[in-house]
């Protein structure tokens, strides 16, 4: 099942893993990354320090500490420079690599944030299309491995864009 919800990803209780829109250093930051580290507590930063960063488009996994889920998958979305710097492929890689890592850990229920559409300024319509296309293709190739993929969106405009895109893939 794929769905979108309006809310705070640090509060979702129906998934085993949440996907953080992190940065290359993996040492916390603003936006959703800051919110996740704040709720998870300082142990998360301690574990992140052992990972030595993450390349754009790649994903790494940690425990979730004080968050209500089991794992945090940290993926680094591309900064939008106008579209000619491989941004679309890099964002697709974020979703593909996060799903792959989840599957390798037996995670069947996963919640994504809207990667790259905050301070990284990726246009929401394009990002939502890439997100839904990449994940629905992954689910087609791994039909029995997931029970739930959801996007937890922080504002109603972003949610309406993802919801419209979701309808195209249902
Ligand atoms: P990026 O640097 O990848 O653009 P941001 O954290 O700036 O990441 O923004 C990504 C999206 O996450 C934005 O839509 C932002 O509104 C949203 N966001 C911020 N805080 C939260 C939260 N607590 N839960 C879910 N989404 C959030």
Automatic annotation (TrEMBL):
Residues 1-170 form the Macro domain. Transmembrane segments: none annotated. Gene3D superfamilies: Leucine Aminopeptidase, subunit E, domain 1 (3.40.220.10). This is O-acetyl-ADP-ribose deacetylase.
